[in-house]
Amino acid sequence: MPHPKEDPDHFRDLLHERIEKLEASLAVANAGDDTVAPDNAIGRLSRMEAIQAQSMNAATRLKQEKRLKRARAALDRLDEGTYGNCTTCGDPIPPGRLEIMPETPLCVECAR
């Protein structure tokens, strides 16, 4: 596996792919996030289910927005030359971890 210092373009590509996927996913989530009107529900249970689905969608959207923010921050670190180092302790983040989660700012130990 390449190291960020040896092949920054590989990780830049991974981050851009991640950002594109997250932005597309957020666009879909935002489009489907309509308020549930009482007139649109068949019954009380249907309305409760719709509200629960809306709440779950909001939580998922929030999680995706945080990941998107981390991915953009990782691109900044890549440009600064600090990408691949833990933002907490400064130790190198294993390349395998960066392959799976290119937006991660933390090494395994600090993530625990």
Automatic annotation (TrEMBL):
SUPFAM superfamilies: Glucocorticoid receptor-like (DNA-binding domain). This is Molecular chaperone DnaK. It comes from Longimonas halophila. PROSITE patterns: ZF_DKSA_2. One of its GO terms (molecular function) is zinc ion binding. Pfam families: zf-dskA_traR. It comes from the Bacteria. A zinc finger (dksA C4-type) spans 86-110. The keyword Zinc applies. Keywords: Metal-binding, Zinc, Zinc-finger. The keyword ATP-binding does not apply. Residues 81-112 form the Zinc finger DksA/TraR C4-type domain. PANTHER family: GENERAL STRESS PROTEIN 16O (PTHR33823:SF4), RNA POLYMERASE-BINDING TRANSCRIPTION FACTOR DKSA-RELATED (PTHR33823). InterPro entries: Znf_DskA_TraR (IPR000962).
